[in-house]
Amino acid sequence: MAKYIFELDGQLDFYKTYLPRVDKSLSIEQIQTDYTDGVLNGNLLEFKLNINDLNNVLFQAIKYLSSMRIKGKSIPANILLISLNTDQVYQFYSKDYLSFIERVYTLGASKENSGFQGNTPIKTFNLKDSLEKENFITVLKSKNYTKINLDENCIVGWGERFYRENPLAKKADFIGEENGKVKIIGEIRKPDKFKQFIEPYTGDDNVRFRYLMDKLNDNLTQKNLGAFYTPKLYAEKSLELVREAIKRVPQGNDYVIIDRCAGTGNLEQFLTKEELSHTIVSTVEYYEYKVLFELLGDKVRHIIPPTEENDTFNAGLVRGADALSEDFVQSKLIKQYIDNPKCTIILFENPPYAETTSIEHQKQKAGKASSTWKNSFVVQEMKKEVKGTASNDLGNAFIWSAFKYYLRQPTDSYIVYSPVKYWKAQHLINKKFLKGFAFNRRHFHTNIDACIMVALWSNEDNVELTSFILQAYNIEQEKLKDDGVLKIEKIFTNYSKTYYDGRKLDGDLDNGILTGLDGLEANVFVKKRISPLFNDNLLGYLVADGAGFDNPDLHSSLLVAGRYNGNGFFLRKDNFMEKLPMFAASRYITYNRFWTERARIMKSADGSGEYLQAVKDGKISAMLQKILLFTCLETQNHMRSFSGSDGRFYRNHLCLDCTNGATLAIEKLVDFEPNEQEKQLLKQWELVFSNAKKTKNYDQTLTYGVYQIIDELNTNYKDEKNKTVYDYPELNGHLNTLKQMVKKYYLDEIVPFLFEYQFLK
Predict the structure, then answer these.
(1) Which of 437, 467, 534, 635 is the most exposed place for a label (fewest CB within 10 A)?
(2) SS3 643
(3) Is 181 exposed, middle or buried (0-12, 13-18, 19+ CB in 10 A)?
């Protein structure tokens, strides 16, 4: 082989040379996975220009295999270390390093590898020798793998792979065990699909995986049942609220602590022996029930059902343990305490979180299939009293039913984990708040930084309560971190009820076009929910949907024509300036991702009276110009200029490109007096636009905003390693700088105004 200066060049030449002999159907992109230099059949390949420390490079390869094991990837039998400039390949068997592969490494694979003690290579190939080269090709064709041992570090990855490759499989098919009445032997104990890749798991039960049981459900069951996991540090902290509730028990009363969705008992793990003796637990998922029974069965007052019977297993669930069923609500075991006036009821729960209108359900097209709980007794009864979208949330069914069926006396209490919207926006309950904490949702088996509240509610009405405070705690380095005090304020009015412009004017025609989220004209085949309105008075279409910030880019749009699925209003030239704060507010979570903000801060129109008066009096004209400037430079403004299928030209008027004459935005900013930060923003826009005009795709007949420049002019392609390469790096750099400047401007100048007038609350 040639002498190489760059490793990438050597890799590409290697694959061009050997792939035609090994498997010509494979592409380099298919081989270079999991941040490795390549996985080819049963071989992990690691390239270096020159291998000067074999042990160092071997340890790097071992770390790659460790990561693959955690993800549920097959572990190649061979490790091949390739020294490009010396034409040497060193072969090792991964099975010889299994104990190292089955460890977890936190640093990057290339970090701190010196000092590793490896064995002598199984074989060293000299690629200058034709016979050895042919033998090496034989190794590259081999498809052998090293069997790994399952543990808590990799069980989720292998579970996800199992359900992905076996879409009809259920949890029992994966982790089934011989203990108990139901003897379904799962894949982990008797490998079939993975018999080449994993050793049988020999544990008698699944207690080792107790903190992961919710993640070991198949995807549809996860969406239907929600998650039951509570981090240990948060579970321990919330016991402070439980003990406050116990202090409220009248002298002489017995008390019970009920958890209808206990999972594997995460919440109860730090209760004292005495407290457990007052506790009643239940969970609906069969394998969680078995772990719960194993861990707490002999410690709690009751577990539902008390013992496993021949019919306990019910298609992966526990017969008699569905907390939303009428049978459970009427359970004699629990009713004996509810009907006893000398017994105080304390509910302590982290209800499953599942919202069937969420984007996750829509992506999986699983909304209806995973909504069986919506037909339950509790939800049907709830709908008779609770109107609106609150019934779409599984957690709300637990909260509503707690006060409806279990709490009866003023000294009864509910300690519940849930996002704050059930109180803040949905007004599901109006009870007396005693104390609470805010926790980071990221630590509850999710990937989202968001606020979860655990609140201690007294069973006493308090309709006057409009705000309270929570002490916030994150988890860092396995310790609680105090993140200060957070205020929770109730909201009463949405944008759509107050600010949306529903006027119908003379000149409105129904023969315009509709657009998609990307700002282009909508596909003719999509289902359209609004009329394609056109009027010379129309400027665009604004969506600032809902109170919360789930999927903010889906619920926030600014388009040159109506959005095909609606949920917004047509923006008109005579009053668009006063409407733009809604669009600005809808970007809050995008630019402030600290965990305390999402699910706590929401959009509201509660300040509309003061705001509209300020608009009328001209008190905030300068501020509205600032918001207009932000809107023109914000990338979520997806207004474009183009010719529609209706024969009309649609021009983006909310941008700063005046090549074809002043836009409406330019006209509104004619008397704007920019401060220093705004001068820098405008200067950066000029840098962006001057470079945009140099691009191949630039069309001088169009009026460009930032988004259209990004999407149509800032072109790119993928290189051989699937990395993005921009055709105009100077333009791309100026755009990236502009984005950061807009973010800072938004947080500095716009956000305080949005809170002042309660667009954010």
Answers:
(1) 467
(2) strand
(3) exposed
pLDDT score of 354: 67
Share of the chain above pLDDT 70, in %: 96
Compute how many other C-beta atoms are within 10 angstroms of the C-beta atom of residue 444. 20
d(CA 720, CA 722): 5
What does the pLDDT read at residue 361?
43
Inside any domain, residue 601: yes
* 391-418 average pLDDT score: 97
CB burial readout 39-62, b (16+ within 10 A) else e? bbbbbbbbbbbebeebebbbbbbb
| Residue 72 pLDDT > 50 | yes
- Tell me which residue of 421, 587, 569 sits closest to 488, measured CA to CA: 421
Per-residue model confidence (pLDDT) at position 184: 79
CB 761 within 8 A of CB 489: yes
Report, as an integer, the average pLDDT of 99-128.
88
- As a whole number of angstroms, the distance between CA 555 and CA 542 comes to 10
Q: What is the pLDDT of residues 694-715, one digit of tens each?
A: 999 999 999 999 999 999 999 9
CATH no. for residue 384? 3.40.50
Distance, CA of 742 to CA of 626 (rounded, Å): 11
Regarding predicted confidence, which is higher, 72 or 360? Answer: 72
Residue with tokens 């590898």: 113
pLDDT of the residue at 389: 87
| Cα–Cα distance, 466 to 604 (Å, whole number) | 14
- 589 belongs to a structural domain: yes
Q: What are the pLDDT digits (tens) for 334-343? A: 999 999 999 9
How many domains does the chain divide into?
Answer: 4
Nearest of 709, 743, 704, 682 to residue 560 by alpha carbon: 704
664 and 630 both lie in a single domain? yes
Please identify, among 225, 248, 282, the residue that sits at the C-terminal boundary of a domain.
225
User: Which position has the token pair 């808590």?
Assistant: 152
pLDDT per residue as tens digits for the range 489-510: 999 999 999 999 999 999 999 9
- For residue 351, say if its preceding peptide bond is cis, omega within 30 degrees of 0: no
Q: How far apart are CA 416 and CA 485, in angstroms?
A: 19
Nearest to 602 by CA among 396, 427, 459, 345: 427
User: H or E stretch including 436?
Assistant: strand 431-440
* Mean pLDDT value across the chain: 93
Angle at the Cα of 291 from the Cα atoms of 290 and 295, rounded to 5 degrees: 120
Q: Is residue 265 part of a domain?
A: yes
Residue 750 CA: distances (Å) to CA of 26, 468, 509, 616, 671: 52, 26, 35, 20, 19
- For residues 264 and 217, membership in a common domain is answered with no
**Whether residue 365 sits in one domain with residue 254:** yes
Return the bridge partners of 472, or none: 438
| pLDDT 10s digits, 146-198 | 999 999 999 989 999 999 999 888 888 998 887 777 777 899 999 999 999 99
Closest by CA to 532, choosing from 489, 566, 488, is 566
- 140 and 18 in contact (C-beta within 8 Å)? yes
